[in-house]
Specification:
Layout lengths: L4 E5 L5 H12 L3 E5 L6 H13 L5 E4 L4 H9 L4 E5 L1 H10 L4 H14 L4 E7 L10 H20 L2 E6 L2 E6 L8 H9 L3
Parallel strand pairs: 1-5, 1-6, 2-3, 2-4, 4-5
Antiparallel strand pairs: 6-7
Length: 190
């Protein structure tokens, strides 16, 4: 399981672009596993833009809730799977009344069983701001933080992306010729 990667960063930090470049280098049959649910016009537009910007080599699978099972099925056909994003998945679980801690445990167990595919998990770091003013937002922040810690422990690499620049927290330190540099130079955005 040392090949799995967790990429954290704030909103619009460049984490997805960085993850896409890592995925393109990691395999020949990449899958983009999207957890978003396009429930309003703004989200539909964000999904459309993500799809438009994504490299055409990616197959796409949308799965808002059953992420562990979807990963295990996808690993049979794809050598690299980019999951974008865990914080939306946690939001979906909360909205469906699911036990988030149990779902994260199931995700960790699924990752342990996936040996021949590299999984790249993207998530928003939400614990760097002020303490949220309501109980639901505080619970979400705490659940996301616990999920990040659990997954960082089992992933072979962990990167934090700020202003399009990856900081390696765990694993091999990236150099200037890394996917983040390529992402900024080839697309202009990440």
């Amino acid at each position: 399981m040392a090949g799995h990667v967790l990429i954290l960063g704030g909103a619009r930090s460049g984490k997805t672009g960085f993850a896409e470049k890592l995925a393109m280098r990691a395999g020949d049959r990449p899958l983009y596993l999207a957890t978003a649910q396009a429930l309003d016009d703004e989200m539909r537009e964000r999904v459309r833009l993500h799809q438009q910007q994504r490299h055409k080599r990616f197959a796409t699978l949308e799965e808002p809730l059953a992420l562990p099972a979807a990963l295990e099925r996808a690993a049979a056909m794809h050598d690299v799977i980019l999951v974008d994003c865990l914080t939306l998945w946690i939001t979906n679980l909360l909205g469906a009344g699911r036990n988030v801690a149990q779902a994260v445990d199931e995700l960790a167990a699924a990752l342990a069983r996936i040996e021949h595919s590299r999984v790249i998990l993207v998530s928003n770091e939400v614990g760097l701001g002020i303490v949220p003013d309501n109980a639901l937002a505080r619970m979400f922040r705490d659940l996301a933080g616990a999920a990040h810690q659990r997954l960082a422990d089992i992933c072979g690499e962990v990167h934090f992306v700020v202003a399009g620049l990856p900081l390696t927290l765990k694993g091999e330190r990236l150099t200037e010729s890394t996917p983040a540099t390529e992402a900024r130079s080839s697309t202009g955005t990440t």
